[in-house]
Design brief:
The chain is 0% helix and 40% strand. The chain is mostly beta strands. The protein contains no helices and nine strands. The model has no long low-confidence stretch (mean pLDDT 77).
C-alpha cells in the first residue's frame, strides 16, 4: 500500500483534549471528543477538518435515540447514525485528490 500523504500535524493534538458534552436533543456541532448524553434523537454536524489526520470521536451515552452525524464533506458516506451506547471515530483525509471525513471506527 502506498502512502499518499503524510499527516501534517499530530492526530492526537490539543483539540483532542476538548471534551464537549451535549445533553439536549437537537442540532449540535462536534469538536474533539463529543459525548452525547441526551435522551432523544439528535442531528449533529462535524465541521471540515483543519489538517490531514485530524480526528473527532463521538460517543452516544444517551438513553434512546440515535445521533446522526452529517459532515459537509465526507468520503464514502453522507452521514453516520450512532446508536445508544455506541461510538464513531472520524479522521480528516486530504491526499490532494480526495478530501473529507472518513468514518474509521464505526461501532454504530
Amino acid at each position: 500500500m502506498a502512502v499518499l500523504a503524510k499527516v501534517s500535524k499530530p492526530a492526537i493534538g490539543p483539540q483532542w483534549n476538548v471534551v464537549k458534552t451535549q445533553a439536549t436533543a437537537g442540532a449540535c456541532s462536534v469538536e474533539g471528543t463529543t459525548i452525547c448524553s441526551g435522551s432523544g434523537a439528535q442531528a449533529m454536524t462535524l465541521a471540515d477538518g483543519s489538517y490531514n489526520g485530524q480526528m473527532a470521536l463521538i460517543i452516544n451515552t444517551g438513553g434512546g435515540g440515535a445521533k446522526t452525524v452529517t459532515p459537509p464533506t465526507m468520503l464514502g458516506l453522507s452521514s453516520v447514525g450512532i446508536a445508544n451506547t455506541k461510538a464513531c471515530l472520524f479522521t480528516w483525509v486530504d491526499d490532494g485528490t480526495s478530501t473529507g471525513w472518513v468514518a474509521v471506527g464505526v461501532n454504530a
